[in-house]
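Posted in: Structural Biology > Protein-Ligand Complexes

Title: Requesting predicted complex, 2-phosphoglycolic acid in pocket

I'd be grateful if someone could produce the 3D structure tokens for the following input. Sequence and ligand are given below.
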Amino acid sequence: MRKPVIAANWKMNKTPAEAVQLAAEIKENLPYADGMSIIICPPFTALAQLARIMEGSPISLGAQNMHWEEEGPFTGEISPRFLLDLGCDWVILGHSERRQHFQETDEQVAKKLQSALSHRLNPILCVGETLEERKRGETEAVVRREILSAFEGIEADRALRVVIAYEPIWAIGTGETATPAQTAEVHSFIRDLLSRLYEPGLSQKVRIQYGGSVSPENIAGLMGEEDIDGVLVGGASLKAKSFAEIVSRSAVTKGVQTE
Ligand code: PGA
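-- Reply #1 --
Done. Output follows.
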């Protein structure tokens, strides 16, 4: 059985002081569930303070991006070593907002994935199509291109540590969610792809999340799909109660025991 994985992507929201307050509220409201991975990805500027708050809690810390090099003349960039030093276990890579607004390429995302895995950071690799691509029937072609590029040269034991987030771009921040069935179809396509790249058993072990306007209202339907192992939550993770609700409803749907 794959361990459900729920991640919060706070994007460019919350000053360090506001982040501390939200993290404390989430910690207070969150059900304790050993059988789930719960990850919060605040802005870089709040990582150090959140690491202290999360200590001893079941919540892991993640960053929203990183450079692939360890150090050097890369003004404004953050290295995997800095993230480790700040207490991060996770890093989101190739989010569509980075691909769209900052021209991140498949090649750069692949370098970041290799680097994160070598530094023992667990990556959440985002893939997904735009509305135009979906309308043109290119969803599978886009997801295939992004997955093949990212996993090139990644050995099986490392591939297992990657969480894939399928995030249809048209569903991000729009209030429009892909239906559980639409999502499950792409998730099963991704598993099929992985079973061709690696031995078939591996594709059954890799965790695949859905992301795009996830809310307490639609979480049960999504998590009810066997192929959906978790969610990457943007807007709804900025309110402690709604994020906690998403976690507890996920636990119930997946039959995970909480305290
Ligand atoms: P959203 O963002 O939940 O606000 O749609 C999801 C994401 O971008 O990861």
